[in-house]
Amino acid sequence: MYQLNGLTTHLCQLxxxxxxxxxxxxxxxxxxxxxxxxxxxxxxLIEDIFLSLNGKAGAQTIRxxxxxxxxxxxxxxxxxxxxxxxxxxxxxxxxxxxxKMAQATQEHKTCDNLVNRAFDQxxxxxxxxxxxxxxxxxxxxxxxxxxxxxxATHEILAHHVSSSLRMDIVYQTLTHLVExxxxxxxxxxxxxxxxxxxxxxxxxxxxKDMGFTQSMSRKGNCWDNAPMESFFGHLKDxxxxxxxxxxxxxxxMIHDYIAYYNSSRYQWTLKKMTxxxxxxxxxxx
Length: 285
Fold this sequence. Notes:
The structure is a single chain. By secondary structure, this protein is an alpha/beta fold. The chain folds into 2 domains: 2-85, no CATH class; 127-284, Nucleotidyltransferase, domain 5. The chain is 46% helix and 12% strand. The chain contains 11 helices and 5 strands; from the N terminus they run αααααβββαβααβααα. Strands 3-2-1-4-5 form a 5-stranded mixed sheet, with helices on both faces. The longest helix has 24 residues, at 29-52.
């Protein structure tokens, strides 16, 4: 072990980088992973349109379809960068650069980080967290899981599995939250990252109509929504999605795991209780 002393300095010198630069690079790894995750989300949307038009859609066409069909505003430079990054090469010549594009009629807006990592709440429903993750089955097909987690009890209050990243995935998750009998206490916060789903004006209006105050993580900072990421990590460790071969099998496995997680998975940070038990404990207190 002691023979490794000074090895970092030596390797940095060989690579031609400073030690401070190397440690700064290590520190920024979570932000890089979050940026990569957001790129993958954007890629799935762009690829869906690209393939539906047989590879004949350029960046400007994709942008128009995203805005008009999905209400998603995405910068042209970002679309071109994503297409180049993932090798989506248009089969047709570039659109006329002088042709004016119709501007979006709705503006996506971010929100302040009002939760500010205050996840340890003493009141169920006070802070709800949400996010979307990827799941690959045994055939390599991707499914998307949208979930809502109670920051106080760690319960998964609602979820929805979809084969598409279109806006319906978050609308359906909110619908399930209501159907599952969620009772909102006064001044509840709904916290997410700055993904296009959560900045969408219609989604934001739905939250407002439900009585939520919306909060968002700082850009590229996955730690601001760490408990949600933690649940997705446990889920992927505990189940074998690759054993599934159909979307229905994926949905069933996710549903069964969440039922187990809420009612049977003891957690040290919940005083060794399950999420459901801890909810009862907080309400009794």
